Each structure stands twice: as structure tokens, then as C-alpha cells.
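Re: that backbone. C-alpha cells:
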């Protein structure tokens, strides 16, 4: 009988190379929580991949709020609309919403209050690793004096940030996705808006935490 023969290291290597990761359509997708391959998938939204239950648990808080509603945000109301993530003041979690970025007043109507001016920050600027993982950039828009104006406290951000970092975010926030188009016919830099999905929330929250702990709102850097 040879059935108990221990395979040699060479055999093991061959087996590993010859056996692909089973049953995933995107085999190169990385874990949402670390650089390892994401071989497990969230069973509800089917959008986020993880290397392990541990990484899934680690990211649960920034995955769960949007995971539940991703399925309801698949049918674009019209071609100008893109899926954004809205952080309302008076709700306990962020949510998806359709935004028309061709409408120059859409964000203003949603965010501005009493002539407060708005500000936008690129979250992914300078963070290539995340940009590679998401495949796009994220822009966050909010009231310019979101720390000190008299807007109400943003509860959907408070959920993640808490008050221990010493800063309270006020007024609504909106996150949108975009890409730079480089090979444009007119040789001009232009951008296209893209849909955000469940994967965007964790980096947004990480950015907000950094902002809450830093001295001033600033560009994200490594
Ligand atoms: Zn992982
Ligand atoms: Zn999910």
C-alpha cells in the first residue's frame, strides 16, 4: 500500500500552482482588509471580498450599513445619476443616494445651509494603494466650517468617530467617486463620475478619523 506515502515538497508546490482559487469570478481581488487575496465573499451583497472571517469581522462596522441596501441601488434612475454615499446629520448611518453631478446645484442643495460655502477634499489623493484597490478616487464634500459652524452634529459620522478624538463633525457630508480620463481626444484632462459601492465606506471613515485627530482639515497623505 502506498496511500499513506507523504507527498514530497515538490508535489505540494505543483499542487498549489495547479489548483486555482475555486469559484470566484475575480480571482485577483484583494481582501478588503489586508493585502491578501480575497477568497471569501460577503454572502449578502456579494460585493466585498475577504481573506478570512477575521478580516470580515474587523470591517463589519464600516461594511454593514451599506451592505444591506446595495441591491436596492443597482438600477440607475437616469444616465446622469451616480451612486454616492451620503452622511446625513439626523440619521445614525450613512446611506447610498443617486446624485446628478451634471447638475451644478445638486450638491449645494443637499449640503449648503445659510450661505455656508462648501469644500471638497480628495480622499484618495496620494494613497495609491487604496486607489488601486477601489479602482477610482473619492471626493468628499462638506460645509467649509464643519467643525465650528453652528450646524447640527452629524450623527451618521459620530457613529464611527465617537467623541474621543476631540472633534465633532457638523452638517451633512457627501462622498462621490470619480476617475481621471487621460487619453482624451481633446488632449485635456477630464474626469468621469463613477458609482461608489460598499468598499468605499471603510476608507472614507479612516479618512474622517484622521481628520478628527489632526490639527486642521488637510490633504490625505502617507
Ligand atoms: Zn484580509
Ligand atoms: Zn456585504
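Recovered sequence:
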Amino acid at each position: 500500500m502506498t496511500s499513506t506515502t507523504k507527498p514530497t515538497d515538490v508535489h505540494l508546490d505543483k499542487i498549489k500552482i495547479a489548483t486555482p482559487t475555486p469559484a470566484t469570478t475575480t480571482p485577483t481581488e484583494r481582501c478588503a482588509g489586508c493585502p491578501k487575496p480575497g477568497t471569501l465573499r460577503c454572502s449578502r451583497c456579494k460585493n466585498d471580498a475577504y481573506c478570512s472571517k477575521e478580516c470580515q469581522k474587523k470591517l463589519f462596522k464600516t461594511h454593514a450599513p451599506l451592505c444591506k441596501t446595495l441591491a436596492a441601488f443597482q438600477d440607475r434612475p437616469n444616465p446622469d445619476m451616480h451612486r454616492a454615499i451620503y452622511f446625513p446629520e439626523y440619521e445614525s448611518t450613512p446611506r447610498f443616494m443617486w446624485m446628478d453631478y451634471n447638475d451644478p446645484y445638486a450638491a449645494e442643495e443637499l449640503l449648503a445651509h445659510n450661505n455656508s460655502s462648501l469644500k471638497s477634499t480628495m480622499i484618495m489623493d496620494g494613497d495609491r494603494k487604496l486607489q488601486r484597490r477601489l479602482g477610482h478616487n473619492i471626493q468628499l464634500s462638506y460645509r467649509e466650517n464643519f467643525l465650528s459652524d453652528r450646524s447640527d452634529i452629524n450623527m451618521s459620522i459620530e457613529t464611527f468617530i465617537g467623541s474621543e478624538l476631540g472633534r465633532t463633525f457638523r452638517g451633512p457630508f457627501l462622498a462621490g467617486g470619480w476617475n481621471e480620463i487621460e487619453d482624451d481626444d481633446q488632449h485635456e484632462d477630464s474626469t468621469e463620475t463613477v458609482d461608489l459601492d460598499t468598499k468605499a465606506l471603510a476608507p472614507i471613515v479612516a479618512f474622517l478619523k484622521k481628520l478628527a485627530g489632526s490639527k486642521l482639515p488637510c490633504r490625505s497623505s502617507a
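Residues 42, 44-45, 47-48, 63, 67, 198 surround zinc ion (ligand 2) (CB under 6 Å). The longest strand covers residues 173-181.
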